[in-house]
Design goal:
The chain is of the alpha/beta class. The strands form 2 sheets. The chain has an 8-stranded parallel β-sheet, with helices on both faces. Helix 1 packs across helix 10 and helix 9 packs parallel to helix 10. It is globular, with a radius of gyration of 17 Å. The two termini are 12 Å apart.
Length: 316
């Protein structure tokens, strides 16, 4: 098993200003935790991210959104919505983030890596086709999923698993009418951004290819894991992916300031193991995991390290 870590120093130059929860320190604590585990780090394939070309981004996003972000960033510090702050390096960071997720696909398809983790910021799963929101500029996971389909004939069907405490409304929206991408989300509900009800299951040809499992605040970790496992069993009976992507939001961790779910590090390891089992059976272990939320700087690094260790471990 080889797990690639695709990242770039520009991820910490996306300056969101003082007291913003989506801070450059998130990238720093994650990378320090990985680096400080010498045994783990020696087994990982470290790769510096490249920028995504405009065409790859616009395979998921409207040209108007691309131009809007360019325009606001060029002015220095500005807001794309009430929560989404940008600064001079934000466009570079966002393009490297989307590029890193696509690069993970290349590394896996070339055989250089079995799976990959991308410690990206800004995160992506709230970014819709036409709107940046919820700390997100471009939808890294969505761009990479479409990149995989457009560049590799072997990748026809992609499953996206989102365990962030917030619903990935942007990812859902991009693929809501698409039967080639299955979007599955567990999330606190009702909670930001207000989407993700059980009845949201797709439209047109995409009906049945979205599955939301809304969770009440304070749902016991054991119950959340049981529902997650049962849902993947159901999906596996109807959809066999060629690639699995994880929107790895660690704000569903107990004690995160932006969520009220109760997962601990070992629970994220269990979720990772479940997805790995599915990937081993369905798609030769191909998994790309991209960082989404996770705002407790005292826990985030160790939680990510536990997740990456499980990605690196041989599947049972």
């Amino acid at each position: 098993m080889t797990t690639a870590i695709i990242h770039h120093p520009v991820f910490k130059e996306h300056d969101t200003g003082p007291n913003h929860p989506e801070s450059p320190s998130r990238y720093s604590v994650v990378m320090k935790s990985l680096h400080d585990d010498a045994e783990l780090w020696s087994k990982l394939l470290e790769v510096q991210a490249r920028q995504a070309p405009r065409g790859d981004v616009q395979a998921c996003h409207a040209p108007q959104l691309y131009k809007q972000i360019e325009r606001v960033v060029s002015k220095g510090t500005g807001y794309l919505d009430a929560d989404t702050v940008v600064s001079m390096k934000s466009m570079d960071a966002a393009l490297h983030g989307a590029g890193a997720a696509c690069q993970a696909i290349d590394l896996i398809m070339s055989g250089e890596a079995t799976n990959a983790f991308v410690p990206v910021r800004p995160p992506g799963h709230h970014a819709t086709a036409e709107r940046a929101m919820g700390f997100c500029l471009f939808n890294n996971v969505a761009v990479a999923a479409r990149y995989a389909q457009n560049h590799y004939p072997e990748i026809e069907r992609v499953a996206i698993v989102d365990w962030d405490v917030h619903h990935g409304n942007g990812t859902q929206g991009v693929f809501y009418d698409d039967p080639t991408v299955f979007f599955f989300s567990t999330h606190q509900y009702p909670w930001y951004p207000g989407t993700g009800a059980r009845g949201e299951s797709g439209i047109g040809r995409g009906v049945g290819y979205t599955l939301n499992v809304p969770l009440r605040a304070g749902t016991p970790a054991m119950e959340q894991k049981r529902m997650f496992d049962a849902a993947l069993d159901d999906i596996n009976g109807a959809f066999r992916p060629d690639l699995i992507m994880i929107s790895a939001g660690f704000d569903s961790h107990n004690g995160d300031p932006l969520g009220q779910l109760l997962l601990e590090d070992e629970d994220f390891v269990s979720l990772t193991r479940i997805v790995k089992g599915w990937a081993k059976e369905a798609c030769r272990g191909r998994i790309v995991s991209c960082l989404e939320g996770g705002y407790n700087l005292q826990t985030l690094g160790e939680t990510v390290r536990a997740h990456v260790i499980e990605l690196q471990n041989e599947p049972s």
